[in-house]
Design brief:
Elements (H helix, E strand, L loop, with lengths): L1 H6 L1 H16 L1 E5 L13 E6 L4 E3 L6 E4 L8 E5 L6 E8 L4 E5 L2 E4 L2 E2 L1 E2 L3 E8 L2 E12 L2 E7 L9 E5 L4 E5 L9 H4 L2 E2 L3 E11 L19
Antiparallel strand pairs: 1-2, 2-17, 3-4, 5-6, 5-17, 6-15, 7-8, 7-14, 8-9, 10-12, 11-12, 12-13, 15-16
Length: 222
């Protein structure tokens, strides 16, 4: 065993450094579901900056040093406060914000989001099954990003108003009627934030023929 360790110590040090890098500096996150459509698609792999907000002790949620404040509109990876599953959503509510939704319209601190006219598309929700979807751009508090609604899907389109607790953040999926977000799991504590997703690395059509989506490679996440 000692001989094997001596002969492979370089490789073992590489694995250790690589593990520390992935758990403390930068990581990648595959997108398995459609909760962030149309911004992120199933089969996208996103690059996550783990130093966007805090320096953490590797392999833990222990914050060693705060670096920056999470911002409204960031696309964030985090551990669910319900079951520890890794999720990726858009941060819409900051600590102290009053959040509500009325018939799918987001309201933050009394400011009502504005939506562009948008367009109807056919959204694949299962192999061989599509539903009408409405895609538009949401404008609120100086940030704009695409969102999607599925009118035929039962979803929580009305809630609040609720006040986001101190050191917590309110997350929503861009695919508003197909997302297990803070409407269901509650606001997310800061220590559960993993990092900010900022670019796509690669993308493939995993629900179809696995063909690479070359046009999405290295695309910036808005």
């Amino acid at each position: 065993m000692k001989k094997w360790l001596r002969e492979n110590r370089g490789f073992l040090v590489f694995l250790l450094c690589f593990g520390v890098f992935r758990t403390a500096v930068a990581d990648w996150n595959p997108i398995p579901s459609g909760s962030m459509r149309p911004t992120l698609l199933e089969g996208d792999v996103v690059l996550v900056n783990r130093l966007a907000y805090d320096v953490k002790l590797p392999l833990t949620d222990i914050r060693l040093l705060p670096l920056a404040e999470p911002a409204r509109g960031d696309v964030v990876t985090f551990s669910s406060p319900v079951d520890d599953a890794r999720l990726i959503k858009r941060l819409v509510g900051l600590p102290g914000d009053v959040i509500e939704m009325r018939d799918g319209v987001l309201v933050i601190n009394g400011e009502v989001a504005r939506y562009e006219p948008g367009q109807e598309v056919q959204e694949a929700v299962a192999p061989g099954r599509t539903l009408p979807a409405w895609r538009t751009v949401e404008h609120l508090a100086g940030r704009s990003h695409p969102v999607q609604a599925l009118p035929q899907v039962m979803s929580r389109r009305d809630f609040g108003p609720i006040t986001v607790p101190a050191d917590h953040y309110f997350m929503l999926g861009d695919n508003r009627d197909n997302s297990a977000d803070s409407r269901y799991i509650g606001p997310v504590p800061r220590e559960r934030l993993i990092g900010r997703a900022h670019h796509l690395l690669i993308s493939a059509d995993i629900s179809g023929n696995w063909r690479p989506r070359l046009e999405r490679i290295a695309r910036r996440i808005e």
